[in-house]
Design goal:
23% strand, binds adenosine-5'-diphosphate, 5-stranded antiparallel sheet, binds magnesium ion, 8-stranded mixed sheet, alpha/beta, Rossmann fold
Amino acid sequence: MALLTVAGLRIAFSHRGGSTEVVRGVEFAVEPGETVGLVGESGSGKSLACRSIIRLMPAHATMTASKVEFDGRDVLAMSAKELRDHRAHSVGMIFQDPYSCFDPTMRIGEQVAETLRVNAGLEGDAAKARALELLESVDIASPEQRFRAYPHELSGGMRQRVMIAIAISASPKLLIADEPTTALDVTTQAQILGLIEQRRRESGMAVLLVSHDFGVIAQACDRVVVMYGGYVVEAGPVAEVCARPQHPYTRGLLSSIPSLESAGRRVRRAGIPGQPPNPADLVAGCPFADRCAQVRPACRELHVALEGVGDGHVTACPYVRDGVPVTNAGGSR
Ligand SMILES: Nc1ncnc2c1ncn2[C@@H]1O[C@H](COP(=O)(O)OP(=O)(O)O)[C@@H](O)[C@H]1O
Ligand SMILES: [Mg+2]
């Protein structure tokens, strides 16, 4: 049984002019212990999709779904108390910018201890001892000294390690890592991804890793879910999707991965011309139509739906297979 199943997820923001849907029928699943990647350009709905798992929406956002099930429990039906418990114990979360998650006026160790007090009921010396243990478990050298440091005294990579320590302190079954390495240099990025992977292997927790960089996802994940304009446009085992990308958007993302010769130097290859869509401008059809080199008239009316192409690999483009346009595909759609 899947650890997490999300289906029919829709999220809309209300504003004076009405409302704009920014997540448009998203589905994905995470099996116990596996690492799933959510990849897509900025604005594709990745962070909101993550927040649906703990039903924590920003102001003015409305979320509906046909299913959000975690560890056999219906997240959509949880009471306020059950939800608090779910957020504190079942799911750990880390973000791109750990600095914003800390209180700048409070020592790091006290903040870790405070989390332990709230989430695990530990007080005083017990909380401190456990906090030190946690800092050590994320490979922080001289934890006693770091314990007394303020957030600004730590490097970005060190702060992310502390975030990870806090996120896994309650032994969650799922760690959601939303662009955890985006603000870090390449070397620190590799260390943080390595640390997450090590903790996953040791604890058996699953990881949902969000990134706009397919290189990160390809390196770290078992399966990948590709998002564009609030839709899932392709998903499947990472090796399979990288070897046989089906959706023109996925092919574009893969071509933007720094080539092997330039790895580490942040030199970008071709990439995808044009900009991601403004959700308010998306009316009907394939969200990628305006940027797709293989667009055809029917794409403007396409009902975006995932179709299997074998081995758990699905794509929302019925018109291109292995980069080759398909004639008469998609029937009358
Ligand atoms: N608080 C908010 N108010 C209004 N629009 C928002 C808010 N948060 C996100 N959005 C919009 O929702 C869309 C998806 O956002 P998000 O899930 O953060 O994307 P991603 O994480 O993939 O970059 C974007 O178009 C963004 O502008
Ligand atoms: Mg985001």
